Amino acid sequence: MLRSYPPLASARLQSGVGYAQPTQAFPEKVTLDDAAVNVMTDLTRVTAVIILPADTVDEAHRRMIQRGVRMLLVVDQNRRMLGLITATDILGEQPVQAAVQRGLRREEILVRDIMTPQEHLDVLNMDDLRAAKVGHVVTTLKRWGRQHALVVECDAKGRQTVRGLFSATQIARQLGASIQTSEIAHTFSEIEALLAR
Question: Can you name the CATH fold of 36-192?
């Protein structure tokens, strides 16, 4: 027998109403001995800022400014990770080099032309981070010579999902100190590009 369910009370939506968005509150201050997860942007609590590889570099830059981030995840139509693009990529010499090599104007350069592809990305494992300290992350970013590090979580079959990320800028703000990382070339083409500067 079906139960009778009375309708719920309703009201009109007021003008100027916002909507709930996921947020993650970072501790204002941390030390190098605090848990690494205290400085990780957790993508189960914060929506990732993404872009498609066929979007322009200028659109990527606008999105970074709009969302207050310095890195975007580059994904395909099915939201699978293809790579990432950073503000350093966009504001550095890569767009100029891509324009010269391909005979393009600046506004024609696409994200895929300058992004770091997935196969060149080193990642940290969430299981290892559970016992890690902020100091471990800072040392890792310095060793890698990168401003960002992705964190993956693996399922029972070993398949990775991007779970979070670390930002040297965010960590420095929480530490109240600067973190100097310098870009390091990892492939022959990156070495060539650095030598050409």
Answer: CBS-domain (3.10.580)
